[in-house]
Amino acid sequence: MNFRIDDKPVCHCGVFGVYGSDEAALETYYGLHALQHRGQEASGILTRHLKNNKPYFNIIKGEGLVSEVFDNFDAWGEVLIGNASIGHNRYSTTGSSESRKNIQPFFVNYRLGNLAVAHNGNLTNANQLRNQLVEDGAIFQTTSDTEIILHLIARSKLDNQVDQIREALLKVEGAYSFIFLTDNKLIAARDPFGFRPLSIGKKNGHFLVASETCAFDIISAEYVRDVLPGEIIVIDDEVMESKSIKSYNLGIQLPKAKHCIFEYIYFSRPDSRVFNHNVDKVRRRLGKILARNYPVTDPDGQKVIVISVPDSSNTAAIGYENQLEKMDIPAKLEIGLIRSHYIGRTFIQPGQQKREIGVRIKFNIVKGVLENRTIVLIDDSIVRGTTSKQLVALIREAKPKSIHLRISSPPVKFPCYYGMDFPSKEELVANQMDSNVEKIREYLGVDSLEYLTITDMLQSVYEEDEDSFCTACFSGDYPTQIDSSFKKDIYEV
To answer: Structure pTM?
Structure first.
């Protein structure tokens, strides 16, 4: 078993699409760079080009970061030609992480031509659909749930690809943000609950689709709007001429939206706009609510030193320190932990060295900042608790007066089935400690520990109906039915 240095939930995929650009592959390459945080296991780009008016698909994909898979532009730039492209960054959800066949995009050639897909999310009825398809004679090339959608589309008796896609989407359940590429269309679709983000951009007259808006910024593209829950967006040559995007819907009464609140807490980059809010703004609010509800003071009247677990907690730490100052509590935001950005996809076998070296590879302390000071450590979540415990021990080496841990989310008590890599319920420290915060505090070795409540957390998005967000990993209240076999398999792949 491998030990992951960063004991954090993992978002499973980032998707990016381009239609109508002579630099489609290059723009997709840069877009995937900006979305690297959403998947660091594998990457792939597929393009469409015309030769003698006949469409051809070309693909390059492989294990590793975007910069590793596409390290030689002279080589891949000659292969990935054309004015339409889709790309994918992967962290495995369903489907073995060790199989190269599971690296997206996937594509097939069927009776209506070429069809490729890139997917962010999890299909919660994947096992049921897969079993039905196998019984009907389907042959699967991968163990990924994404391949199911291709089989459903290819088996459709309808003669319009948009209608085929709509028909297939009506059969799947769970979370999905899909980008499809056909011989003459780029199609984006989002599940009726809108679990995962998906946005539309524009640059020099051509259109783009991406998991996050930060992928538009890197290529100086303009954010247009989000793909709505239950919406299918079609971009083709007619759209390029009219500049008016074609929109279709699934043809069902949409349920109440259930956006993943963890996109704000951890997954999305702070410079992105997600679910109609700036991520940075929401994270600052989370930090302010933490400070207002759970402040820390120094017993000797010195300034409280506020530090973050970089990088995802940086913005919440800013909000926490600002709120302490507003409450006339002397405080100072400092860099107390230095994070190495050069470890890549490093994994450690527990038998090789003690697990504690994992944290030291990634973090080091600034002793002059921490020594003999009251420290407030801001983090976004605690999952297994192993990394948090080791970080606290590392900070103790600087001999602070005390360490107070503040978490900008509630205790994680339940696994996620909608596209996050939370471990099984038994591995979650909040469950191991029976949700007893005092027991968790003792285990981590901090002087005090406080989490946000679900109500506290939802105050950070007060412009929206608080019931518009999925909080299943905190509450166990799942918006959809979960296939029992899926519950078992998702953490065993």
So the answer is: 0.92
